[in-house]
Amino acid sequence: MDDVTKNRYRTGLEVRRSVLGSPHVDRAEDAATDFDRPFQQLITEAAWGTVWARPDWSKRERSIVTLALLAALGHDEEVAMHVRATANTGATRDDICEAFLHVAIYAGVPAANRAFKIAKEVFAQMDGAKTAHG
Predict the structure, then answer these.
(1) Fold observed for domain 57-134
(2) What separation, in Å, do the N-terminal and C-terminal C-alpha atoms of the chain show?
(3) Which residue spans of the chain are classified as CATH 1.20.1290.10?
(4) At 116, is the pLDDT very low, low, confident or very high (cuts 50, 70, 90)?
(5) Is the pLDDT of residue 1 over 90?
(6) DSSP codes, 40-81
(7) DSSP 8-state secondary structure symbol assigned to residue 92
């Protein structure tokens, strides 16, 4: 791995942890095998070290766009993960609602309906965790 790639990976890991949380990233890293380790490296460098690390948009803005795209494409597990990540990005529940309303118009009501359902489930989990931890 050359220095540019190493720096992009380190940056990506830092950004990925700041958005998704260290426990999530640690689980992904620990679960990596020889088979999928190159994929973990790719997403850390490309998604997190290149795109998410760009300076012109805030994490909140990237979070909103990411949620809309994932919802539109029907990537349910990723929608749930990125709804949880809004606790770290500053995107509000109102932001998520607005993003999913756009999904309804531009990608279809069924996609938005599913995304709203997933978000409500995640919010219930997040609210329950807050209640349990005081």
Answers:
(1) AhpD-like (1.20.1290)
(2) 45
(3) 57-134
(4) very high
(5) no
(6) HHHHIIIIIIIITT-SSS-HHHHHHHHHHHHHHHT-HHHHHH
(7) -
**Among 101, 97, 88, 91, which Cα is nearest to 119's?**
97
CA separation, residue 122 to residues 5, 9, 47, 107, 113 (Å): 35, 29, 23, 22, 14
61-103: pLDDT as tens digits: 999 999 999 999 999 999 999 999 999 999 999 999 999 999 9
Whether the Cβ atoms of residue 8 and residue 49 lie closer than 8 Å to each other: yes
Which pLDDT belongs to residue 134?
65
